[in-house]
Q: What sequence folds into this?
């Protein structure tokens, strides 16, 4: 065939039909970026709507806190995430920025408290072991206030009481803190029902106020008749009553504690109010002792050394502690030309109980019907002195050399008259203690010291330490290798993924060309679909129209 | 007029002579009504629309995490740049740089070059540095490998799924769509752009 033929053939060929489509069909393709923009907009709007407030918390150290990973949890629900952590300008503490979720916005109020939960061994035992695996997180105690706040000072230790815990707080007044500390338990009938949550030195520096928290429902056992005492450590008291060993539990030996109970009797008393104040007694006996009643001042003169006798030493009558020494002074007796120790004591005659009431009634009824009670007490003691009551200084504790005052009748005592009523303290004559008594006391003390189960206490302690050590070894031996293996597995996977992508002869690389071809083909058919849709947008609704019969449209056929 | 180009209908094999088209005109087959060719301006429209879509999806893909992995309650989210930085820090800087180039910079360059060229051509003008941009586009296109990254990420997700709880993130979906869009962009015939530019110059 010649070129001429070609041209003439070309001239015979028909020209295609020309059409100008409606303007709207062109805009169809713009739907694609519009949809993409809409999706982007939705994502942005959603992020904006879900974003809660950002807060900053300061901590001493950022140990365990990882920006982007560490979460803030309330009741174990994630309510926020640490976005960044930075050092404060003076390098004293770290500032942690936290993004709270929208639902947690109400957490950022005036009295909320934050702390880092990490494994911790403290008064209450071992806590936060779960964070060994999950990593540290920030705990939050939601405040009750409705005032918003965005800057917080983080606690270094978890709070002993969180705001959502039910119970009551009480104040205890004591002369010193003893072995108590924040977290020390509070016992009721040896059941732990609360803990010490704080302590303050009073402004005058003379006393300590200890705050305790008693959990619901035990808080109802704290009444106006409740007495609190220090149940700390091993309470070994050597007194006229002998040696007493008293502990609430092994825990109190280690960490100290407070116990409370109502005064014996039928009346349970009324429930105490929040923040009610109670005195903290040094031991159970003094806490539960009957009320003292009126007091009577006694004065004694000892012509011997009073080394070992201290203010506060007990005054004892036939084994019952009825008072304490209130003052010790030295005096020079010009007549006898010798020094005398002038001992003042305060006694509570009511503590002698029923026997004393009988004596006192006798005095009041027969002699002076309208006698003032204080004078009646004095009269009874005056009578007793006349009948031979003498004061002796005895050894209470051989180890420490502590002394106490014992009041006792002496059969051989010469009658001695003392003034019946005077503004001065009642003078009680003294006598020297016999050696026999001392010896007997020594034997008693030694016997009872033997009864203290020091060995058991020691064994229990070493058991506790051993099981703690076992636990730690277990964590070290089982958990850590598990974690390491897990990490190695993850790394191996990533390596494998790297290799299958990086090696030139990797099967993935070979398949890639084919895949891309496939994609290309897919794109091409997508394009013809788009084109078809552009031409026949109505086909979306009506379906694809049947091809018209070629003969109808092609007259040259 | 001697060698007027011919055109064959893809659907019914009818042969036509090419005709010059007016603006927005489409040439159709007389026999079956199929589209033969159309005024190139409409292609510019489609290319510009898809390029804009690709840009939006590219931003989404880079902002949102690709995957979230949870092992024993320890969660970790990875964005593209997080992954690249992690690769860099683990000592294989070359791999990190390569990944950054093929998954981030080259696709971004491709989109940017299209955005430079297309709007001007669409208005019938030739953009500044047109030929440089077109050469750059030709060089960049083969190196834009978002699809490789997507396949790698999918392989990792599948492999990790047995070891940890793996949750695909918005970023992964965005990369999927970005792959489709970029493949379509790459499928455009750059020669047509030259032709259009020639037409605009005249
Ligand atoms: Zn046709």
A:
């Amino acid at each position: 065939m010649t070129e001429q033929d070609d041209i003439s053939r070309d001239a015979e060929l028909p020209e295609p039909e020309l059409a100008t489509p409606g303007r709207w069909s062109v805009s169809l393709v713009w739907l694609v970026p519009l949809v993409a923009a809409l999706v982007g907009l939705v994502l942005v709007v959603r992020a904006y709507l879900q974003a809660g407030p950002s807060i900053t918390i300061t901590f001493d150290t950022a140990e365990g806190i990882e920006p982007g990973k560490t979460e803030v949890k309330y009741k174990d629900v994630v309510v926020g995430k640490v976005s960044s952590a930075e050092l404060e300008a003076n390098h004293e503490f770290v500032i942690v920025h936290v993004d709270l979720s929208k639902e947690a916005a109400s957490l950022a109020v005036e009295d909320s408290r934050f702390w880092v939960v990490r494994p911790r061994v403290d008064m209450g035992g071992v806590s936060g072991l779960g964070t060994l695996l999950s990593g540290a997180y920030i705990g939050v105690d939601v405040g009750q206030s409705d005032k918003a706040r965005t800057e917080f000072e983080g606690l270094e230790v978890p709070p002993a009481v969180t705001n959502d815990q039910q119970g009551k707080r009480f104040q205890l007044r004591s002369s010193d803190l003893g072995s108590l500390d924040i977290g020390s338990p509070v016992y009721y009938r040896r059941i732990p029902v609360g803990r010490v949550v704080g302590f303050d030195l009073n402004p005058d520096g003379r006393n300590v106020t200890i705050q305790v928290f008693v959990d619901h429902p035990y808080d109802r056992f704290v009444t106006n008749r409740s007495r609190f005492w220090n149940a700390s450590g091993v309470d070994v008291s050597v007194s006229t009553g002998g040696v007493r060993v008293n502990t609430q539990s092994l825990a109190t030996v280690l960490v100290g504690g407070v116990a409370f109970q109502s005064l014996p009797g039928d009346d349970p008393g009324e429930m105490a109010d929040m923040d009610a104040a109670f005195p903290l007694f040094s031991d159970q006996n003094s806490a539960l002792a009957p009320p003292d009643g009126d007091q009577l001042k006694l004065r004694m003169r000892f012509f011997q050394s009073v080394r070992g006798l201290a203010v506060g030493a007990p005054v004892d009558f036939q084994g019952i502690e009825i008072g304490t020494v209130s003052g010790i002074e030295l005096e020079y007796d010009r007549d006898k030309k010798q020094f005398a120790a002038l001992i003042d004591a305060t006694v509570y005659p009511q503590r002698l109980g029923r026997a004393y009431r009988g004596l006192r009634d006798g005095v009041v009824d027969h002699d002076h019907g309208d006698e003032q009670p204080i004078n009646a007490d004095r009269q009874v003691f005056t009578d007793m002195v006349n009948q031979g009551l003498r004061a002796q200084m005895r050894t209470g504790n051989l180890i420490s050399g502590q002394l106490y005052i014992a009041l006792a009748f002496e059969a051989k005592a010469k009658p001695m008259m003392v003034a019946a009523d005077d503004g001065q303290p009642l003078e009680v004559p003294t006598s020297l203690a016999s050696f026999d008594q001392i010896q007997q006391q020594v034997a008693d003390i030694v016997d009872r010291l033997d009864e203290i189960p020091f060995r058991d206490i020691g064994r229990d302690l070493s058991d506790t330490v051993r099981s703690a050590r076992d636990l730690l070894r277990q964590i070290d031996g089982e958990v850590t290798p598990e974690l390491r293996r897990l990490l190695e597995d993850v790394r191996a996977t990533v390596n494998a993924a790297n290799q299958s992508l990086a090696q030139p002869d990797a099967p993935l690389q070979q398949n890639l060309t084919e895949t891309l071809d496939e994609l290309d083909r897919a794109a091409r058919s997508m394009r013809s679909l788009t084109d078809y849709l552009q031409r026949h947008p109505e086909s979306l609704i009506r379906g694809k129209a049947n091809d018209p019969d070629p003969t109808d449209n092609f007259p040259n056929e | 007029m001697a060698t007027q180009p011919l055109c064959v209908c893809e659907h019914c094999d009818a042969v036509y002579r090419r005709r010059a088209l007016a603006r927005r005109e489409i040439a159709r087959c007389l026999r079956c009504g199929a589209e033969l060719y159309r005024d190139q301006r409409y292609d510019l429209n489609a290319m510009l629309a898809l390029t804009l879509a690709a840009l939006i999806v590219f931003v989404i893909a880079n902002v949102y995490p690709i995957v979230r992995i949870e092992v024993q309650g320890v969660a970790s989210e990875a964005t593209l740049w997080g992954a690249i930085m992690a690769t860099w820090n683990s000592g294989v800087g070359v791999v990190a740089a390569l990944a950054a180039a093929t998954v981030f910079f080259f696709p971004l360059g491709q989109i940017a070059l299209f955005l430079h060229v297309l709007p001007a051509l669409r208005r019938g003008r030739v953009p500044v540095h047109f030929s440089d941009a077109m050469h750059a586009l030709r060089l960049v296109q083969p190196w834009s490998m978002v699809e490789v990254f997507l396949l790698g990420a999918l392989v990792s997700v599948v492999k990790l799924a047995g070891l940890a709880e793996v949750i695909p993130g918005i970023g992964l979906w965005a990369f999927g769509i970005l792959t489709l869009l970029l493949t379509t962009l790459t499928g455009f015939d750059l020669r047509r752009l030259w032709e259009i530019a020639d037409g605009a110059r005249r």
Notes: The pocket of zinc ion is lined by residues B 9, 11-12, 14, 29, 31-32, 34 (CB under 6 Å). The first strand of chain A starts at residue 17 and ends at 19.
